[in-house]
Amino acid sequence: MENRFGFRDVIVVVLLLAVLVMIGLAMVQFDRQYTVIRRIASTLEEQTASQARLEQALTRLNNRLERGEVAIGVATPQGTPAAPPADAQADAFPRLAAAVSQPEFTRGDWLVDAFASNPSKLTPLVSKDLYGRRIQNYIFDNLIVQDPDTFEYRGQLAESWDIEPNLEAWQAWVDAWLAEPITDAEIPAEIDALGDRLDADTVRGLIERMRTEGLTPAPFDSAEAFDAASSALNTGELAALYGELRRQEGRRYEDAIRQPDAPPAATYTFRMRPGAVFSDGTPVTSEDVVFSWDLLNNPAVDAHDERAFYDNIRAWEALDDRTVRFESREPHYLAFGFAGGRPVMPKHFYERFTPEQINTSSSLLMGSGPYRMAEPDEGWRPGTPIELVRNDRFWGPQPAFDRLVWKIINEPVARLTEYRNGSIDFLAAQPNQYQEMLNEPDLVERSHHSAVDTVPSGYAFVAWNQRRGGEPTRFADKRVRQAMTYLIDRDRISEEMMKGYARPANGPFEPGNPQRNPELDTRSLDVAKARELLAAAGYEDRDGDGVIEAPDGTPFEFTFTYPSGASYYDDIALFIKDTMAKAGILVKLEKLEWAVFVQRLDNRNFDAVILRWGGGAIESDIRQMFHSSQIANRGNNFNAYSNPELDVIIDQARKTLDRDERMALWHQAHAILWEDQPYTFMFTQKALRFVDDRVANIEAISSGLNDRVEWFVPGDAQRWTQ
Amino acid sequence: MLNYIVRRLLLLVPTLIGVTMVVFFVMANSPGGVGGSALSEEGDISSEQAIIQREYFNQRYGLDDPQIVQYGRWLNRVSPVGFGEAKKTAGVPVGEDRDGVPQALGFKWPDLGESFQHRRPVLDLYAQALPITLLLNLVTLPISYVVAILAGVYAARHRGQAFDVASGATLLSLYSAPVIWVGVVLIGFLASNQYLQWFPASGLSSLRADEYDFLPSITADGWQRGWLLDRAWHLVLPVVCMVYGSFAVLAKLMRASVLESLGSDYVRTATAKGLSDGDVLWHHAFRNSLLPLITVAASIVPSLLAGSLVIEKIFSVPGMGLLTIDAIWARDRELVLAGALISGLLGLLSILVADLCYAFADPRVSYE
């Protein structure tokens, strides 16, 4: 038989394949060139615009000179970017200015860090992870910022501000509105607005709500009584019942503050500094501030959660080029920070994109901060390292590093290896890893290492569910919860599992936080005391089997539920099972995948869970976890903890704008939580950091390590030179 | 033949509907529910935002509709024939939807939807992860086939001798070494300055690769490896990890099949004719022994798209494996369904192509 496929054919196939590979490689190379061309084009565009602004300014100046006006001592003409004087820069960026003025301060070099997972987008408003926010910090400026050391507010883009509280008028208006009975027109409107969502659950929620507010809804005196009857009710009957209940409940505070004619609780007026410019040279004006808020509140932009967070700011307007005024809906100590603390986004850049484009973009980043994306319009592709270059037009003191780079390294071993090799300069370690690294002398020698407390740090906790399936559980008795806390040896957990880089917590406020009540101690392991408390609550070993029982003979047993993922949860769960056994309590362990875990929290279907709250605002608002209004509607008070006294204090503290008065209230709240133990507060963790030794000016301050814009590498130690 | 192809192509549709239906309903009824954990990272739960986010999902993706309605809607979206916005659909107008946008029934572009978790179009996410996975697989496959074929042929030829036994044992032990361990060991020894720092520990390019020339060059600062070589250098460790475990199966398959050929009548005839051993092996036995490998090759087309989670995670390479597994954890319905649809489609198509190839390769097979 003749050979159909011979040597010549092989050569042809190989050549064909080679040509295909060449074409592929050529396409890759064109792509690389295209990226460079785009970068050059965007720089050119910026320079043309900047030149045009200069020419206009020159023309104006020329005209004035020709008209015989004297130009000396006249304020800078509108629209001309002029760097603010050094003292204004130092005022806006005092910490950065102090770093720059150090004698050995040198510009240059890169700082390379690593993210543990892959952020999917960096565009402000639509990016949802921590990573996005960290990158945005270097690109955007706010009107005001909280000093990381003193926690005082200071102006960044704003040079001064006015706060006009309007508390009396606001309170009077709200009281008057609430005092009026609900009108017949309002109820049908509300039922209409509910539409399809008006079902038995909604009515049940309403009954629960009325009960927490101290009203006894007729004709059902409990949610359970309603449950028994609800299956028999049709939609019309449900609507009628809803209307009846709403009439009894009267007007609601939440509706009051949303009335368009309600007076503002306070107005905040910010006066902006002259001379601040975005990274393309355009001046920052009040219009950009207003635009940023408009964009946040544009329903087409996918920023639902962030929008809800800033809901208290109800109006914003530009009074002139450099003045913006905000109105708050209700009095709240964070309202000022909310109004001034949002990144200011350049209108001329972001208005080029439709909301849909913004939603699906991965990196639209332009601001007035110390760093910038080399190409602001989609200059970063997800999955590649993130590189910020120094903003040469920055209106404050120029920071040291030429570039801030974040690689993406998923695997802890690879991260450690890269740090060891000097390919990354910064490593955030877990307690075990940190401990091991300290045992390597050469690693320690070429690093700054630090274990620092941070504010806010967040804390781990065990939540004891007080209500399950409509019935109070045994954890509804605060003596039982206190006993649980006495039984969990948090000192040992902090020492052994967290290697001493954690400390036992006694409430939601970490050490160093002014909200923390300094008079409270932290309960240590005390089995005898726990037994005593349990006996007082009626739990004793009645049949001598070593397990304690309730008066009706049921053994004290509960399920400890924890999410999979963090390995130390496994250790803690086993430890708790063991320590509980010493007091005659049986514990079943249940490890759940995150999605399932969250569902169980939402359905309140658990006995005890361990979790961690991340640090939010520096002065945290504990309403979300401990106020009884947060029990219903899948709120975050998932363990059904309710203390009317605490509710009043939390509401009062939120409204109190005077810092000292408010701290006194937080201290009271802390004391109540300490007594009630709705959670067993487990521990707060230290931030464990390794930073390459060549970096100077690293400093531990109240909030943790100082920001990396203040760091620098002295001249001869620089590694990455241009 | 044409008849057969058309019939098989039409059969694709119900099969794909079946595949996606199973995936859809398993996801919808799994504990946690669709979109259930698109909430936060690493055990932190974020405030009241979770509730708002859930409501937004319900409203945007209709997650509170009956499941069958949700599935129908998804099917309509990915189908090239169906209801769609009148502007984007070539067909007959059929009224308006709830928001008053005119609708039409006809041909349209399939839309894979938007990922819950990343809030970006599924297509974009694939466009980002697929080239990386394809690159890794396209480098890996030829290596594993060439090495396995050579080892298999050589072992068959020297059956029972030292090479046969040694290669069998080595390849099997490589096959048994878990990738997750080998990967970490390779990083620890070959990428760390404590031992041999020959290769990079993570990523696909050096930090400054953007500024490199394309090809290796000698500049004023000395030797510069260039973008292409840099990429190849970064690929070494991941490719080693992907390749070493695949030798055993292919080599054993090849060995068995060559042995079978060597024992057959035509080989004896060829040897009797006085042909040299090499001629007999390469011209007579070898080609016939390739048939089982071709059968196996038909099934690798869909697996070209599947990334390896472990390797991607260890070497921080953002490919399909990480994307898919994250989507499953997060119950990211659109992303998982799109994956099932695409790999289902490719799998079915490659089976069809393989069936057609049999007809060409073997005259006894006919589809008339």
Overall description:
The complex is a heterodimer of chains A (722) and B (368). Chain A is of the alpha+beta class and 722 residues long. Chain A contains 26 helices and 23 strands. In chain A, α2 packs across α3 (94-100), α7 (200-212) runs antiparallel to α8 and α25 (644-655) runs antiparallel to α26 (659-676). Chain A starts with 6 loop residues before the first helix and ends in a 17-residue tail after the last strand. In chain A, 38% of the residues are buried. In chain B, a hairpin with a 5-residue loop joins β2 and β3 (102-107). In chain B, α1 runs antiparallel to α15. The N and C termini of chain B lie close together (6 Å). By secondary structure, chain B is mainly α. At the A-B interface, α1, α12, β10, α16 and α23 of A face α2, α4, α6 and α13 of B.
The total of beta strands of chain A comes to 23
Q: Which oligomeric form is depicted?
A: heterodimer
Main β sheet profile of chain B: 3 strands, antiparallel
**Count of alpha/pi helices of chain A:** 26
List keywords for this structure.
heterodimer; A: 722 residues; alpha+beta; 6-stranded mixed beta sheet; 4-stranded mixed beta sheet; B: 368 residues; mainly alpha; 3-stranded antiparallel beta sheet; two-stranded antiparallel sheet; 5 strands; 63% helix; globular
Short description:
The complex is a heterodimer of chains A (722) and B (368). With 722 residues, chain A is of the alpha+beta class.
Topology readout:
The complex is a heterodimer of chains A (722) and B (368).
Chain A: H1 7-66, H2 86-92, H3 94-100, E1 110-115, H4 130-139, E2 144-146, E3 153-155, E4 158-165, H5 167-179, H6 186-194, H7 200-212, H8 223-230, H9 235-249, H10 253-256, E5 266-272, H11 286-296, H12 304-309, E6 313-320, E7 323-328, H13 335-340, H14 347-350, H15 355-360, E8 371-373, E9 386-390, E10 403-408, H16 412-420, E11 426-428, H17 431-438, H18 441-445, E12 447-452, E13 459-464, E14 467-468, E15 471-472, H19 478-487, H20 490-497, E16 502-504, H21 527-536, E17 557-563, H22 567-582, E18 586-592, H23 594-602, E19 608-613, H24 623-626, H25 644-655, H26 659-676, E20 679-685, E21 687-692, E22 700-701, E23 704-705
Parallel strand pairs in A: 1-10, 17-18, 17-19
Antiparallel strand pairs in A: 2-3, 4-5, 5-7, 6-7, 8-9, 9-10, 11-21, 12-21, 13-19, 13-20, 14-15, 16-20, 22-23
Chain B: H1 2-29, H2 49-61, H3 67-78, E1 81-85, E2 90-96, E3 102-107, H4 122-157, H5 162-176, H6 179-190, E4 217-219, E5 222-224, H7 226-244, H8 247-262, H9 265-273, H10 277-289, H11 291-298, H12 300-305, H13 309-314, H14 320-329, H15 333-361
Antiparallel strand pairs in B: 1-3, 2-3, 4-5
